[in-house]
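Record format v2
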Amino acid sequence: MKSGFPLYAAMVAGLLVLATTPLYADNYVVRTAAIVAMYGALATSWNFIGGFTGYPSFSTAAFFGLGAYVGAICQRHGIPMGLAWAIATVVVAAFAALLGGIILRLRGHYFAIGSIAVVELCRLVVSSWSSLTGGGDGLNLPLMAWPPEELMRFFLFVMLGILLASLIATILVDRSRLGFGLRCIHQNEDAAAMVGINTTAYKIAAYTLSAMFCATAGAAYASWTGYIDPTDSFQIVMTVKVVVMALLGGAGTILGPALGAAAFVLLEELFWANFLDWNRAILGVVIVLLIFFLPGGLLSLGMRRLRAAKVGGGQ
Amino acid sequence: MFAHGILRSARAGLLASSVATGLLAAALTSPALAQETIKIGAPLALTGGLADEGHKQDVVWKMWVEKINAAGGIQVGDKKLKVELIEYDYQSEGQRASQLAEKLINDDKVQFLFSPFGSGHTKIVAGVGERYQVPTIACVASSESVYDQTLKYLFGTLSPNGGMTTAMVKFFKEKFPETKSIAVLGRDDVFPKSMAEGIAKAAEAGGLTVAYKELYPVGTMDHAAALSSIKAAKPDWIYITGYTQDLILARKQMQDLGVTAPIVTMVTGPSYKEFTDGLGPLANGISSSSWWHHLTSYEGQGVWPTTAAFYEDFKARTKGDPDYVHGSCAAAGEVIVDALARAGSLDKVKVRDAIAATDIQTFYGPIKFGPNGMNLSRELPIIQVQDQAIKVLAPAAIKNADMIAMP
């Protein structure tokens, strides 16, 4: 399809930029690229429920943390790394589907609060269930005895793979009946139900999709650091960051969330490196300004130019 | 409409990639390498939940670097090299701690790492150091579980916290022979948890009944339920572990609920000045153990020849008293000085082996690493708050007060 070409080109170009970092940069830059890919995948996942469906979900960190724990526990029981990640993905997707059936009955602010409680609840369960999760001691994973450069390259490609998978899923959903249904729910859920959309099933599908890739990313992240604990795995800050990233880039678009994630991580790096004492405050101000003046996200910049071009072309 | 959507996405993609390229390029321009210095990297919690502890490490490391550079630097072979300390704030977030350790090693080319406060973050940073074979000195991680990961490049200057429990049970039973039962409430976090479990084990071995033992999750804002259960169990000894904020809260709630016992121990509460400052008269009578106290009189090599010399310097700089975090971290640098003198080069493997063979006396006490990289056990001080000041009860050599019952 001819019209799909620019989208794919942009996507491939973006992924290539990240994927080629090991060729010319040191491990720290490669690591930043891997983190961009990871947050890109998280924000793209969030987009299913938050962007398409319009349900303000704050449960990203819960899925990420659970994925990390399921993956870590599997690996500690001798299951090979790749398989452990796959198990984490399936288990967390099933968890999200079951949970979705309950909390997706809430709407608006109530849903937001409910979904944030999921993060806190998961953290408490994981930290209290010491016999399985090690409680507050955290879990050690087998440290991978690879040279650091190779290890970093490997995890960059893993994170890029997860990002790519989430983007492909987004494109497929966007072009399918599911995507159409989700947008209908976003606009008016009651009306959507009246025209024959099975809103419950659709919402659960979106919520599950939003959990899957987070779980894979979490499990991969656990293998990467080699040590996880409840406080760092279930961070409210992470949950909020991911939503901000998606809004920053443009919620409900295909590449927006990943773009937002890249911009956010790089801004964070930039401010952090240059303003050691004030970086948090500056970052906060920048986010507030961006959301005030660019409510449609960074993508709306492109939109404006596009409209201008169209008007010009029409004359 | 459809085509517009695609175009929109395409533009975004292009924008994204150009932004990414630009910023990555900016990130590439790392600071120029200053040759012929020893670089020590320190990811520190200067903001966030562990900021107080992070600042303590920061102040003594800066003191140490100034001192050592004023004396010409560190002897390596036939050269004297200056020391450069590179610190970054990891905002008390584990993920950022590992990222910064990576940055310190890759961008700043540090040859050593000082690990941040706490056993959990030490694990994270030491894992990165291990991959690059960069020796990591941990001055505030005392849980043996940190050192069982077979990390060959991690060394800790605190001695195992197991040493703190058995001696304490023995000492308290001597002073209060009628002590029969203990109630233990611990924070579910690496160090406080291991202390809570350690004391319960030591108490049982010492013939006490454990009347209550529970862990509370990190971030608990209310201990009322646990304290009520403890009250019902009527123990002779209440032992609570956690960090300063947890313990201040627990002590205040004990007061509100009328929970008390002849002996109340909080670990590591009274080791920190913030604890006694925060509680005022309520802190009186609370006992604790610590890894180091400035009243000890150790002598040894390094920029501070005696404990008193360190104490004077510290007092002059901060107007306050140093605690064990200050002592342990200030001594961490001496490990590097000694190892480099013996290794005579900056070769990674040689330096690592030299550190493993460390056997020195310092103002902080002896430093000699066991096979797991942890400082060997020694007699640790037992302390108590009396009239809002810290008194040392044991060991006998540095004792300056007798133990009193809770008022």
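The mean pLDDT of chain A is 87.
Chain A has one domain: 2-314.
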